[in-house]
Amino acid sequence: MPTGTITRVFERRGFGYITPDQGDRDVYMHVALVEAQQTWLEEGLRVRFEAEDRDQGLYATSVHPLD
User: Are 47 and 16 spatial neighbours (Cβ–Cβ below 8 Å)?
Assistant: First the structure.
């Protein structure tokens, strides 16, 4: 499962972006798909995630904070 860092958060809108450790495109993430929601909004948080390529770009299908 790829890993990355949450780099941008738009808390009021309920989404943010993950910059993957490998790859050149940021991954969109929505709060509804994030595990451990009490920590999801922290920029700089290291996560592991699964993503799929959609018409709008990479979209996280699951996000889990790294231990």
Answer: no
pLDDT of residue 51: 95
Identify the CATH homologous superfamily for domain 3-65. Answer: Nucleic acid-binding proteins (2.40.50.140)
**Residue 55 phi, psi (nearest 5):** -55, -35
Largest CA distance in the chain: 32
User: Is residue 7 a contact partner of residue 47, using CB atoms and an 8 Å limit?
Assistant: no
Q: How far is CA 31 from CA 23, 24, 62, 66, in A?
A: 22, 23, 10, 17
How would you classify residue 3: left for phi > 0, otherwise alpha for psi between -120 and 50, otherwise beta? beta
pLDDT tens digits along 13-42: 889 999 999 988 999 998 776 655 555 568
